[in-house]
Amino acid sequence: MKHLTDSMRTVRPLKLDGLKPSSFGIVLLLFLAETASAITSIDPAAVRAAAEYSARHRGASFLAIQAGRTLSEQNAKTPHKIYSGTKAFWDLTALAAAEDGLLNLDERVADTVTSMRSDPRKAQVTIRQLLDFDSGLEPQFFLHETQSGDRDATARRARMVAEPGRAFIYGPAALQVFHQALREKLRGDSPTRYLERRVLHRLGLRSQRYLADRAGNPLLATGWILTARQWAKLGQLVLANGAPVVSRNSLQQCWRGTTANRAFSLGWWNNRAAPNGREFDFEQALIAKWQNQDWRDACLCRDAPSDLVACIGSEGQRLYVIPSLQLIVVRQANGGSFSDAHFLRLLLGR
Question: Which strands form 12-13's sheet, in the order they lie side by side?
C-alpha cells in the first residue's frame, strides 16, 4: 500500500457518486456552499497527520470531506467491511417506518410480537429499547454465525437479564427481535425490501450483503461491505438533517442517548459529554461483558466538538460526522491498535 501522503489529492468539489441529479443533491450542495465560508477550515497539515496515523495503524482507506470539498482520499472506492456500521442503516429504517406510520418507537414490542407477552418484563420492552440496546435482553452473540437456523425465533426466546431501560447490552438479539416486529408491521413486504426502497435507493446505494440465516432473516448487527465513498453518504444525510430519508426531528433522536448509555442512540455514538467527560476507547470497552461496562459520562474525545457523532465498527471501522464543522471522515482498517481520541486530536490540530 502506498504511503498516504503519496495519494493526497488537491481539494475539489465533492461528487455524489451513485446519485442521480435530484433536488436533494442540489439543495445539499447549495447549503454546503453557503456554509463553507462560515465554518472553521480544517488545517491540511492536520488532515495529513491524521491520515498518516490511520495508515500506520493498518488503515485501509481514508476519506475526509468538509463542506462538500474532499480534503483527503485514499482507496475510497475500495469495498470494505463496516461491521457494526451496518446497525445505523437499520436504525434509519426504523425512523423511516415511524414516519410512514408503520410503527411507533415507543410502542411495546409485545403488541406486535405476541410471544413476548408471556414474560412480564419482555411485555414491557419498547421498539426504541431494542434499537438502543437497553431492552434487557441477553446479547446472544452466537447469532452472528452465518449458519444460524432462525435468528428471529432464537432472539424472541432470549432471556431477560435486566429490567427494560436499566442496562446497556450491546448485541444482535435485540435487533433480530426488531426485525421480527418490522416484518409483521409490513404485512407481506419484507424488511429488506423496505430498507432498500425507503433508505438505500434514496441514498444512491444498492442491495447489501445481508448474511441471511436458513430462514431467510438478514443479520441486522453487521455484515455490510461499503466503500468509504458509499459510507460517507450516511454522513451527508446527517449534515442534511436527515434528507432525503427522514426529517430533522426524526434524525435528532439519534443524538440524545439513553439513561443506560448517554453516549449511544439508534446506531450512533455521540460526544455530548465533552469536554469534561470520561474519555476511553469505546470499541475496547464493548469487549467486556455488559455487566462490567461503565458508560457514565463517556465521550470519544474531550478535545473534539460535543456535536461529534460516529458509527463504530470492529477492527477500526469509523464514520465520524461533526456538523458544526460540516465535516465527514471515514476511516476503514484491517484491525490493529487505534485511538479515536488521538486520531481526532490530530485531525483537529488540538
Answer: 12-13, 69-74, 59-66, 327-333, 317-322, 309-313, 268-270, 264-265
Backbone angles phi, psi at 187, to 5 degrees: 50, 60
Q: Which of 243, 218, 262, 233 is nearest to 96 (CA)?
A: 243
pLDDT in tens, 220-237: 999 999 999 999 999 999
Res 1: pLDDT: 38
Residue indicated by cell numbers 450483503 = 209
What's the chain's Rg over C-alpha atoms?
A: 20
C-alpha cell at 251: 434524525
Tell me 267's DSSP state: T
How many angstroms separate the CA atoms of 170 and 290, rounded? 7
**What is the model's pLDDT at position 146?**
77
CB atoms within 10 A of CB 323: 17
Q: Are 345 and 308 in contact (CB under 8 A)?
A: no
H or E element in which residue 12 lies: strand 12-13
Q: Assess whether the previous peptide bond of 172 is cis (omega < 30° from 0).
A: no
Is 133:220 a contact under the CB 8 Å cutoff? Answer: no
Q: Are strands 12-13 and 278-279 parallel, antiparallel or unpaired?
A: unpaired
Report residue 308 as a C-alpha cell: 461529534
Cα–Cα distance, 59 to 316 (Å, whole number) = 8
